[in-house]
Design brief:
Length: 415
Amino acid sequence: MKMPSVIRNGLFAATFLCSTTLCEVRSDELTGVPPPLPLAIGREITADLVNVIFLFDRLASAPPRATTPNFIARISDPSSALYPDYLDYEQGRINRSELESRLPHVAMLGDSLTQNFHFSSMPSSFWRARTQWRKNWFLDSDPNPDSIFSVYERLEHFTPLVATEYNGAGALVAAPGSQENLRQRLVRAHNLPGQVNGVLHRTRFPDLIMIWIGHNNLDWVRGLSSEERQHPQKRLEVIAAQVRVNYTESLQRLIDRAQIQNHRVAIVVFGLANINTYLEGRRKAEILHAGNPKFYPHFNSGLRSFESLKPLYGRNTARLALMINAELRAMVAGLKREVANIHNVRIEYSDALTKVDLSRLELINPVDGWHPSTEGHKALAQAAFTALHPSLAFLRITTRPTKQPRLLVSNSQAR
């Protein structure tokens, strides 16, 4: 029996309001301190109940995984690097599933800036966060020239592949062993340790792992008194240092698994977005919204749960982003030294996404002025893919196209 839309929307709103309230009393995800037992039990029951009620939404959403549809035809070409695997399949030594596992595998770990997400009404935001996979800069398979030319599609020009996204709205760089809060549970989002668990639980370990996460850790204002907000330097330093500790622990788990694989593994850690240019874009959007509320109608929605992006706190939020990026760069430099003698593992820090100019209004979502627009996803895809060339060379994935490029169209600039 189909649930009436009025009831469904009311339940969505009630659920989201409930989660907003309960999330204020939560475990410290940055340090891994568990929540009180009654709260933890209540959270589990609520999340499980919602997942049962909305079991149908899995049927309504595209899976967060894509495989090149005609991969068998492509690798049947004797010039393909995977032709020997095709012969194994053709001669019955392996089945189709085993053949697919021999394709290059790419994984994406991140937050809502990698997802097709924006704030709108509570029911719509809830539904979008739970179901909107693909249609983002990492994974979009729509051949329409006006759609996002994603990293997945760009890689497909060189090799058939399998791409999987683990990112989720609201995801944090949290301590291993920490638990997601109720809101994250309701939208099926996992923090970085949970996303790493998803990668490790797969039988086939990825060849390429891309990570762009940490933006939700920028909410330094949360929990501070008015006086503490006036002098946040120590708070910023603590957050940046803790992000590095937590990030390192999650990366180390990936590296430990990568080094025992019988194939090469490249890990690319992307620095956070440039918050200074992002806030400049927000200011432009705010002027338009003030003049006509129909522009960016949900401009203020995100600020209710993320105060640190309010103009009053923006300068220190931008400072924190720079501090975290400095920690991530140093973290990767240290890990590179550790894996120097592990010949099948490569790790790299990239500032390619930091350099995307988010002050350009066309890159910001026209509904909330907060998340990337379609044009924003296009710009992020271009920047990320350009940064992958050293890793692709390490993985011995040729950058000579093996399929016909599609026509590229952009409303803002030629691609």
